[in-house]
Amino acid sequence: MKKTVLVLAVVVFLLAALSACGAKGEVVNVYNWGEYIDTDVLKQFEKDTGIKVNYKTYETNEQLYSVLKQGGVSFDVIIPSDYMISRMINEGMLEKINMDNIPNLSYIDKSLMGLEYDPTGEYSVPYMTGIVGLIYNSKIITDEIDSWGALFDEKYAGKILMFDNPRDAMGIALKCLGYSLNTTDKSELMEAYDLLVQQKPLLQAYVMDQIFDKLESGEAAIGPYYAGDYLLMYENNPDLKLVIPKEGTNRFVDAMCIPKGAENKENAEIFINYMCSVDASMKNAEFIGYTSPNTEVEKVIELEDYEREVMYPPKELLQNCEFFVNLPQDILDLYDELWVSLKK
Fold this sequence. Notes:
Blueprint: H1 13-23, E1 27-33, H2 39-49, E2 52-58, H3 61-70, E3 77-78, H4 82-90, E4 125-137, E5 160-163, H5 166-176, H6 186-199, E6 203-207, H7 211-217, E7 222-226, H8 227-236, E8 240-243, E9 249-256, H9 265-275, H10 278-288, H11 295-300, H12 305-311, H13 315-318, E10 321-322, H14 329-342
Parallel strand pairs: 1-2, 1-3, 5-6, 9-10
Antiparallel strand pairs: 4-7, 4-8, 4-9
Protein backbone atom coordinates (compact mmCIF):
# COMPACT_ATOMS: atom_id res chain seq x y z
CA MET A 1 0.00 0.00 0.00
CA LYS A 2 1.24 3.46 -0.83
CA LYS A 3 2.48 5.15 2.28
CA THR A 4 1.36 8.72 2.92
CA VAL A 5 3.62 11.35 4.43
CA LEU A 6 1.52 13.95 6.17
CA VAL A 7 1.85 16.33 9.05
CA LEU A 8 -1.40 16.18 10.99
CA ALA A 9 -2.67 18.27 13.83
CA VAL A 10 -3.75 15.77 16.46
CA VAL A 11 -5.53 16.35 19.74
CA VAL A 12 -3.15 14.93 22.32
CA PHE A 13 -3.74 17.09 25.37
CA LEU A 14 -4.66 14.07 27.46
CA LEU A 15 -1.26 12.57 26.84
CA ALA A 16 0.42 15.76 27.89
CA ALA A 17 -1.65 15.92 31.03
CA LEU A 18 -0.87 12.35 32.01
CA SER A 19 2.63 11.90 30.61
CA ALA A 20 4.06 12.14 34.10
CA CYS A 21 2.58 8.71 34.78
CA GLY A 22 4.57 7.23 31.93
CA ALA A 23 7.71 8.93 33.14
CA LYS A 24 7.66 6.66 36.17
CA GLY A 25 8.33 3.67 33.97
CA GLU A 26 4.78 2.38 33.94
CA VAL A 27 3.51 -0.19 31.47
CA VAL A 28 0.44 -1.13 29.47
CA ASN A 29 -0.18 -4.77 28.58
CA VAL A 30 -1.86 -5.11 25.18
CA TYR A 31 -3.37 -8.26 23.66
CA ASN A 32 -4.28 -7.92 19.98
CA TRP A 33 -4.79 -9.90 16.79
CA GLY A 34 -1.70 -10.89 14.83
CA GLU A 35 -0.53 -8.52 12.06
CA TYR A 36 -2.95 -5.87 13.32
CA ILE A 37 -0.92 -2.80 14.22
CA ASP A 38 1.96 -0.74 12.89
CA THR A 39 4.73 -1.48 15.38
CA ASP A 40 6.19 1.95 14.69
CA VAL A 41 3.05 3.39 16.28
CA LEU A 42 3.81 1.38 19.42
CA LYS A 43 7.35 2.72 19.47
CA GLN A 44 6.09 6.28 19.04
CA PHE A 45 3.56 5.77 21.82
CA GLU A 46 6.35 4.67 24.15
CA LYS A 47 8.45 7.68 23.13
CA ASP A 48 5.59 10.16 23.55
CA THR A 49 4.27 8.85 26.86
CA GLY A 50 7.13 6.99 28.52
CA ILE A 51 4.77 4.03 28.96
CA LYS A 52 6.25 0.70 27.95
CA VAL A 53 4.01 -1.55 25.83
CA ASN A 54 4.05 -5.28 26.55
CA TYR A 55 2.45 -6.62 23.39
CA LYS A 56 1.12 -10.12 22.70
CA THR A 57 -1.11 -11.52 19.95
CA TYR A 58 -3.86 -14.09 19.48
CA GLU A 59 -5.50 -15.62 16.40
CA THR A 60 -9.20 -15.87 17.28
CA ASN A 61 -11.78 -14.30 19.55
CA GLU A 62 -12.26 -17.70 21.13
CA GLN A 63 -8.56 -17.95 21.99
CA LEU A 64 -8.72 -14.50 23.58
CA TYR A 65 -11.81 -15.46 25.58
CA SER A 66 -10.23 -18.69 26.76
CA VAL A 67 -7.05 -16.98 27.92
CA LEU A 68 -8.99 -14.38 29.91
CA LYS A 69 -11.34 -16.98 31.40
CA GLN A 70 -8.45 -19.15 32.56
CA GLY A 71 -6.90 -16.19 34.37
CA GLY A 72 -3.28 -15.97 35.46
CA VAL A 73 -2.41 -13.58 32.62
CA SER A 74 -3.04 -9.87 33.06
CA PHE A 75 -3.86 -7.53 30.18
CA ASP A 76 -4.88 -3.87 30.20
CA VAL A 77 -6.13 -3.49 26.63
CA ILE A 78 -7.71 -6.15 24.44
CA ILE A 79 -9.22 -5.79 20.94
CA PRO A 80 -12.00 -8.36 20.47
CA SER A 81 -14.68 -8.37 17.80
CA ASP A 82 -18.22 -7.15 18.30
CA TYR A 83 -19.97 -10.39 19.28
CA MET A 84 -17.21 -11.32 21.72
CA ILE A 85 -17.39 -7.88 23.32
CA SER A 86 -21.10 -8.46 23.92
CA ARG A 87 -20.41 -11.84 25.49
CA MET A 88 -17.71 -10.39 27.75
CA ILE A 89 -20.01 -7.56 28.85
CA ASN A 90 -22.73 -10.06 29.71
CA GLU A 91 -20.27 -12.15 31.71
CA GLY A 92 -18.83 -9.18 33.61
CA MET A 93 -15.40 -9.51 32.03
CA LEU A 94 -14.91 -5.85 31.02
CA GLU A 95 -14.37 -2.56 32.82
CA LYS A 96 -16.30 0.55 31.86
CA ILE A 97 -14.03 3.02 30.06
CA ASN A 98 -13.90 6.58 31.38
CA MET A 99 -14.70 8.30 28.09
CA ASP A 100 -13.65 11.66 29.55
CA ASN A 101 -10.14 10.27 29.22
CA ILE A 102 -10.66 9.57 25.50
CA PRO A 103 -10.94 13.06 23.93
CA ASN A 104 -9.94 11.64 20.54
CA LEU A 105 -13.25 9.78 20.60
CA SER A 106 -14.56 12.88 18.80
CA TYR A 107 -12.88 11.55 15.63
CA ILE A 108 -14.64 8.17 15.75
CA ASP A 109 -17.57 7.47 13.42
CA LYS A 110 -20.69 7.76 15.58
CA SER A 111 -22.50 5.14 13.46
CA LEU A 112 -20.09 2.55 14.87
CA MET A 113 -20.83 3.48 18.47
CA GLY A 114 -23.74 2.18 20.54
CA LEU A 115 -24.32 -0.84 18.32
CA GLU A 116 -25.99 -3.96 19.68
CA TYR A 117 -22.76 -5.47 20.98
CA ASP A 118 -22.23 -2.47 23.32
CA PRO A 119 -25.52 -0.55 23.30
CA THR A 120 -24.53 1.96 25.99
CA GLY A 121 -21.11 2.56 24.44
CA GLU A 122 -19.42 2.33 27.83
CA TYR A 123 -17.17 -0.69 27.35
CA SER A 124 -15.50 -0.31 23.97
CA VAL A 125 -13.94 2.12 21.50
CA PRO A 126 -13.80 1.07 17.81
CA TYR A 127 -10.32 0.24 16.55
CA MET A 128 -10.95 -1.03 13.01
CA THR A 129 -13.89 -2.14 10.92
CA GLY A 130 -14.19 -4.20 7.77
CA ILE A 131 -15.83 -7.08 5.99
CA VAL A 132 -15.04 -10.73 5.32
CA GLY A 133 -14.45 -11.60 1.69
CA LEU A 134 -13.56 -14.58 -0.45
CA ILE A 135 -9.99 -14.55 -1.77
CA TYR A 136 -8.87 -16.76 -4.62
CA ASN A 137 -5.90 -17.22 -6.93
CA SER A 138 -7.08 -16.39 -10.46
CA LYS A 139 -4.18 -18.29 -12.00
CA ILE A 140 -5.25 -21.52 -10.34
CA ILE A 141 -9.01 -20.95 -10.36
CA THR A 142 -10.02 -19.53 -13.74
CA ASP A 143 -13.76 -19.50 -13.00
CA GLU A 144 -15.42 -16.24 -11.99
CA ILE A 145 -16.23 -16.68 -8.31
CA ASP A 146 -19.23 -14.88 -6.81
CA SER A 147 -20.58 -17.23 -4.13
CA TRP A 148 -19.62 -18.87 -0.85
CA GLY A 149 -20.55 -22.08 -2.64
CA ALA A 150 -17.06 -22.16 -4.15
CA LEU A 151 -15.71 -23.18 -0.74
CA PHE A 152 -17.84 -26.32 -0.91
CA ASP A 153 -17.13 -27.22 -4.55
CA GLU A 154 -15.48 -30.62 -5.08
CA LYS A 155 -13.50 -29.40 -8.10
CA TYR A 156 -11.37 -27.29 -5.78
CA ALA A 157 -10.65 -30.18 -3.40
CA GLY A 158 -7.30 -29.93 -1.69
CA LYS A 159 -6.99 -26.23 -2.54
CA ILE A 160 -9.59 -24.83 -0.12
CA LEU A 161 -8.87 -23.07 3.17
CA MET A 162 -11.48 -22.50 5.89
CA PHE A 163 -11.61 -20.35 9.01
CA ASP A 164 -10.36 -22.17 12.08
CA ASN A 165 -13.00 -20.86 14.47
CA PRO A 166 -16.63 -21.85 14.93
CA ARG A 167 -18.41 -18.51 14.59
CA ASP A 168 -16.82 -17.58 11.26
CA ALA A 169 -16.96 -21.07 9.78
CA MET A 170 -20.58 -21.63 10.79
CA GLY A 171 -21.40 -18.10 9.62
CA ILE A 172 -20.11 -18.82 6.12
CA ALA A 173 -22.08 -22.06 5.94
CA LEU A 174 -25.21 -20.26 7.16
CA LYS A 175 -24.81 -17.52 4.55
CA CYS A 176 -24.22 -20.10 1.83
CA LEU A 177 -27.55 -21.68 2.80
CA GLY A 178 -29.34 -18.34 2.79
CA TYR A 179 -29.65 -18.00 6.57
CA SER A 180 -28.71 -15.23 8.97
CA LEU A 181 -25.31 -15.21 10.64
CA ASN A 182 -27.14 -14.78 13.92
CA THR A 183 -29.83 -17.45 13.61
CA THR A 184 -30.87 -19.26 16.75
CA ASP A 185 -32.87 -21.83 14.80
CA LYS A 186 -31.24 -25.13 15.70
CA SER A 187 -32.41 -26.83 12.52
CA GLU A 188 -30.66 -24.15 10.46
CA LEU A 189 -27.53 -24.54 12.56
CA MET A 190 -27.57 -28.29 11.99
CA GLU A 191 -27.86 -27.72 8.24
CA ALA A 192 -24.81 -25.47 8.41
CA TYR A 193 -22.94 -28.09 10.44
CA ASP A 194 -23.81 -30.79 7.92
CA LEU A 195 -22.48 -28.56 5.13
CA LEU A 196 -19.20 -28.12 7.03
CA VAL A 197 -18.99 -31.90 7.50
CA GLN A 198 -19.35 -32.33 3.74
CA GLN A 199 -16.68 -29.69 3.18
CA LYS A 200 -14.11 -31.14 5.57
CA PRO A 201 -12.60 -33.77 3.21
CA LEU A 202 -12.25 -31.08 0.53
CA LEU A 203 -10.13 -28.84 2.73
CA GLN A 204 -6.41 -28.37 2.62
CA ALA A 205 -6.53 -26.87 6.11
CA TYR A 206 -8.41 -24.91 8.73
CA VAL A 207 -6.43 -21.69 9.13
CA MET A 208 -6.27 -18.21 10.57
CA ASP A 209 -3.07 -16.16 10.15
CA GLN A 210 -1.51 -18.99 8.08
CA ILE A 211 -3.70 -17.96 5.17
CA PHE A 212 -1.13 -15.33 4.21
CA ASP A 213 1.61 -17.77 3.28
CA LYS A 214 -0.70 -20.38 1.81
CA LEU A 215 -2.51 -18.05 -0.59
CA GLU A 216 0.43 -15.80 -1.39
CA SER A 217 2.64 -18.76 -2.30
CA GLY A 218 -0.04 -20.56 -4.32
CA GLU A 219 0.02 -23.52 -1.93
CA ALA A 220 -3.74 -23.03 -1.62
CA ALA A 221 -6.13 -21.47 -4.12
CA ILE A 222 -9.17 -20.15 -2.27
CA GLY A 223 -10.29 -19.19 1.22
CA PRO A 224 -12.24 -16.67 3.27
CA TYR A 225 -10.47 -13.84 5.03
CA TYR A 226 -10.70 -10.25 6.11
CA ALA A 227 -10.75 -7.78 3.23
CA GLY A 228 -8.11 -5.57 4.83
CA ASP A 229 -5.58 -8.38 4.84
CA TYR A 230 -6.24 -8.95 1.16
CA LEU A 231 -4.48 -5.67 0.35
CA LEU A 232 -1.30 -6.90 2.03
CA MET A 233 -1.54 -10.26 0.28
CA TYR A 234 -2.17 -8.64 -3.10
CA GLU A 235 1.09 -6.70 -2.85
CA ASN A 236 2.97 -10.01 -2.81
CA ASN A 237 0.71 -11.87 -5.25
CA PRO A 238 -1.31 -9.78 -7.74
CA ASP A 239 -2.99 -12.95 -9.05
CA LEU A 240 -5.17 -12.92 -5.94
CA LYS A 241 -8.71 -11.60 -6.28
CA LEU A 242 -11.20 -10.54 -3.64
CA VAL A 243 -14.96 -10.93 -4.02
CA ILE A 244 -17.85 -10.20 -1.73
CA PRO A 245 -20.17 -13.21 -2.17
CA LYS A 246 -23.66 -12.53 -3.49
CA GLU A 247 -25.22 -14.16 -0.42
CA GLY A 248 -23.79 -11.40 1.76
CA THR A 249 -21.12 -11.50 4.42
CA ASN A 250 -20.01 -10.47 7.88
CA ARG A 251 -19.26 -6.83 8.63
CA PHE A 252 -17.32 -6.47 11.82
CA VAL A 253 -16.04 -3.97 14.34
CA ASP A 254 -12.96 -4.76 16.39
CA ALA A 255 -12.86 -2.48 19.40
CA MET A 256 -10.51 -1.62 22.24
CA CYS A 257 -11.65 -2.78 25.68
CA ILE A 258 -10.25 -2.97 29.19
CA PRO A 259 -10.52 -6.36 30.95
CA LYS A 260 -12.02 -6.51 34.42
CA GLY A 261 -9.39 -5.95 37.08
CA ALA A 262 -6.81 -4.46 34.70
CA GLU A 263 -3.78 -3.39 36.72
CA ASN A 264 -3.04 -0.32 34.60
CA LYS A 265 -6.45 1.11 33.71
CA GLU A 266 -5.26 4.71 33.49
CA ASN A 267 -2.47 3.73 31.11
CA ALA A 268 -4.96 1.65 29.14
CA GLU A 269 -7.10 4.74 28.58
CA ILE A 270 -4.04 6.71 27.51
CA PHE A 271 -3.26 3.95 25.00
CA ILE A 272 -6.84 3.84 23.68
CA ASN A 273 -6.92 7.61 23.26
CA TYR A 274 -3.59 7.54 21.43
CA MET A 275 -4.83 4.88 19.00
CA CYS A 276 -7.84 7.10 18.22
CA SER A 277 -5.65 10.04 17.17
CA VAL A 278 -5.63 10.90 13.48
CA ASP A 279 -1.93 10.18 13.10
CA ALA A 280 -1.97 6.76 14.80
CA SER A 281 -5.26 5.80 13.13
CA MET A 282 -3.96 6.56 9.67
CA LYS A 283 -0.62 4.84 10.18
CA ASN A 284 -2.39 1.72 11.40
CA ALA A 285 -4.90 1.81 8.52
CA GLU A 286 -2.10 2.21 5.96
CA PHE A 287 -0.09 -0.58 7.51
CA ILE A 288 -2.81 -3.21 7.88
CA GLY A 289 -5.28 -2.19 5.15
CA TYR A 290 -8.38 -2.13 7.34
CA THR A 291 -10.93 0.66 7.53
CA SER A 292 -10.26 3.09 10.33
CA PRO A 293 -13.33 4.28 12.24
CA ASN A 294 -11.55 7.65 12.48
CA THR A 295 -13.55 9.86 10.12
CA GLU A 296 -10.58 12.12 9.37
CA VAL A 297 -8.54 9.27 7.91
CA GLU A 298 -10.75 8.78 4.84
CA LYS A 299 -10.33 12.49 4.02
CA VAL A 300 -6.54 12.47 3.96
CA ILE A 301 -5.33 8.95 3.23
CA GLU A 302 -3.89 8.41 -0.26
CA LEU A 303 -5.12 5.19 -1.85
CA GLU A 304 -5.07 3.48 -5.20
CA ASP A 305 -8.56 2.88 -6.63
CA TYR A 306 -8.54 -0.83 -5.76
CA GLU A 307 -7.43 -0.03 -2.22
CA ARG A 308 -10.24 2.46 -1.73
CA GLU A 309 -12.80 -0.04 -3.03
CA VAL A 310 -11.70 -2.50 -0.36
CA MET A 311 -11.29 -0.08 2.53
CA TYR A 312 -14.34 2.05 1.77
CA PRO A 313 -16.84 -0.22 -0.02
CA PRO A 314 -20.06 1.29 -1.40
CA LYS A 315 -22.97 1.61 1.00
CA GLU A 316 -25.18 -0.64 -1.10
CA LEU A 317 -22.70 -3.48 -0.55
CA LEU A 318 -22.65 -2.88 3.20
CA GLN A 319 -26.44 -3.12 3.29
CA ASN A 320 -26.09 -6.80 2.41
CA CYS A 321 -23.78 -7.40 5.37
CA GLU A 322 -24.52 -8.45 8.95
CA PHE A 323 -22.75 -7.75 12.21
CA PHE A 324 -22.34 -10.77 14.46
CA VAL A 325 -24.26 -10.45 17.73
CA ASN A 326 -23.88 -12.40 20.93
CA LEU A 327 -26.02 -15.53 21.05
CA PRO A 328 -27.98 -17.19 23.88
CA GLN A 329 -25.95 -19.55 26.04
CA ASP A 330 -27.68 -22.68 24.75
CA ILE A 331 -26.74 -21.69 21.18
CA LEU A 332 -23.15 -20.93 22.21
CA ASP A 333 -23.01 -24.37 23.83
CA LEU A 334 -24.33 -25.92 20.62
CA TYR A 335 -21.66 -24.10 18.61
CA ASP A 336 -18.98 -25.52 20.91
CA GLU A 337 -20.38 -29.05 20.67
CA LEU A 338 -20.64 -28.93 16.88
CA TRP A 339 -17.15 -27.49 16.49
CA VAL A 340 -15.55 -30.14 18.70
CA SER A 341 -17.38 -32.82 16.72
CA LEU A 342 -16.32 -31.30 13.39
CA LYS A 343 -12.66 -31.04 14.34
CA LYS A 344 -12.33 -34.63 15.61
